[in-house]
Amino acid sequence: MKSIEQINYIKVPASIVYEALTTEEGLGHVWTKKLVVKPETGFINEFDFDEGYTTKMKNIELVKNSKVLWECIESDKEWIGTGISFELSENEGVTKIMLKHFDWRELTDFYRWCSYNWGMFLYSLKNYCESKKGLPYQDREF
């Protein structure tokens, strides 16, 4: 199984990053404006990227200010059954975020394109947490 792994450092406390990853307000500014999200274990978050289907992520584990774990239950066929985790650790007001998108069945062009897009996700998350100016899917021009 293949895994995408990305890391970034955000100059805010972990509580701010965790809130951005678990709320409609945060993920609406970071990932997509069309969503239904609740910070509850077992809840199925819904994300719409105007591609003709909804991506559904089940909240598997939520550890306040340190971990978010989703299981993809509906999306592009290559995503279904994969997991996405966000692990947070804070040191002197700077939060390290480790993003892992794991259990890919094979290395494909879509896998590589998603790796790029997860990097853009972390860029948007950093901007949103540090300056309240995220870059959700609908606002991208590239």
From TrEMBL:
Q: Where are the transmembrane segments?
A: none
Q: Which domain of life is it from?
A: Bacteria
**Pfam families, per database record:** AHSA1
InterPro entries from the UniProt entry: ASHA1/2-like_C, START-like_dom_sf
**CDD domains per UniProt:** SRPBCC_CalC_Aha1-like
Protein name, entry field: SRPBCC domain-containing protein
Q: Where is the Activator of Hsp90 ATPase homologue 1/2-like C-terminal domain?
A: 11-129
* Family, similarity comment: Belongs to the AHA1 family.
